[in-house]
Amino acid sequence: MYTEQAWIYKRAALSPTKTALIDSNSGEEWSYETLTNHISKWMHYFQRQDYKKGDRVVILSQNRIELFAILFACGMKGLLYVPLNYRLSRSELTYILDDCQPVLIIHDEEHQSICNTWTEVDRLLVNTLFDDIALFEPNIHWEATDPWIIIYTGGTTGKPKGVVISFEAVNWNAINTIISWGLSDLDCTLNYMPMFHTGGLNALCIPILMCGGTVVTGSRFDAEEALIALNTYKTTLSLFVPTMYQAMLETEYIKTASFPTVRVFLSGGAPCPKNIYYQFEERGILFKEGYGLTEAGPNNFFIHPNDALKKKGSVGKCMQFNQVKVVNDFGEPCKINEVGELYIYGKHVFTKYWNNEIETTRTFDNGWLKTGDLAKCDEDGDYYIVGRKKEMIISGGENIYPQEVEQCLVLHPNIREAAVIGVKDEKWGECVTAFLTCKETKEFFETEIIQHCKKSLGSYKVPKKVFILQELPRTDVGKIDKKRLQELALCTQKK
């Protein structure tokens, strides 16, 4: 049993009574021994159902600790674990089910009614109680490159794609993170990232379980509850997206709270506005940013918190067991501080897109993953993510990176959030267009914003149009939905 796929059993043998998982909603706690007992019960169920190696098991559930037992049990039995975004519509979920053709849907009570409509597939509640059973050998032959997880991308630019992630990719991401970030069995993380997202599985949870630490799961995010939980559970390192941090910084709790056990707050999932950096710095709280994607890791870089103070926005240097490079449009390495596309190489990179050979071929270049993200590297070898290649604005023949304009906008004291897009324009090719949410309503604020940008940006980068919204539209994982903003801009043009 003790292959690289079964490392969770070795971890339980090393520290059986150590707390592995805590559900912050129910208060339930599992030791590593308890976790492996639950894994064995799920393995036994899969065996009784006679599921075959390579079969897909779909999960439709809010975050809960039982999902880890199912995840590892799928791996031990050679089944593919497919967590679905429970915020999708029925038609969107049906598309994914048709694509991956699962043998079983495991769901929580909240999603039972929708799951009951898919009568052609076996269905089971996530909290099903099984009779006690003895441990047994799974009798499955694995290869390190065999698939373990399929995570479907958000599909903001088309139909969702199933990212196939192997045992090797999951494990090397964890090993790389433990070594590069210095994780240990003393670490504890609070995870509100949805577990249908790579950030909710692979960013910190699996690495911390591999090194014997503790994972605390949260379900529906509440900013003040999350901040209190960080201290209640004596957490050391946790990942939140920028929108979560924005909500945290607006709570009363953070104004007086200290976080004595927290080594650093980590931001990921989307570029982090610099005003969030400044607010953490004012409170004397260490804060840094990471970069990843479903197709790689998602952990790829490391920066020491002290360096992050000096180089706000940098993700640092690539981790120990992966490689990165920035290339220009001709596939040649970029010069220092020259912007190009970020390429990533390593055993933590995904295998393929499920049932999509064309997109798989487009995404690789001689084994290097083409991320579609723009980056640059400075004199010290530290990297900065500039933005998405597809989102780069070309206005009047000049390249404009929305993230640079957004970072300028959010430094205005009345702006809460900002999103910048390029909108087709007969004169300029594309028109720099800003969408904002504000702390208070002010007359002629659009003019004030343009003057604010002119102080820091070249004239061609300054937004030519400014729209103020109550809320910015978001994708199901909390990112600003720029496709929706394009639609809003188009509707405005037609009026």
From TrEMBL:
Belongs to the ATP-dependent AMP-binding enzyme family. InterPro entries: AMP-bd_C, AMP-bd_C_sf, AMP-binding_CS, AMP-dep_synth/lig_dom, ANL_N_sf. Residues 10-354 form the AMP-dependent synthetase/ligase domain. One of its GO terms (molecular function) is medium-chain fatty acid-CoA ligase activity. The keyword Transmembrane helix does not apply. It comes from the Bacteria. This is Long-chain fatty acid--CoA ligase. Keywords: Ligase. It comes from Psychrobacillus vulpis. Residues 404-479 form the AMP-binding enzyme C-terminal domain. Signal peptide: none annotated. One of its GO terms (biological process) is fatty acid metabolic process. The lineage of its organism: Bacteria, Bacillati, Bacillota, Bacilli, Bacillales.
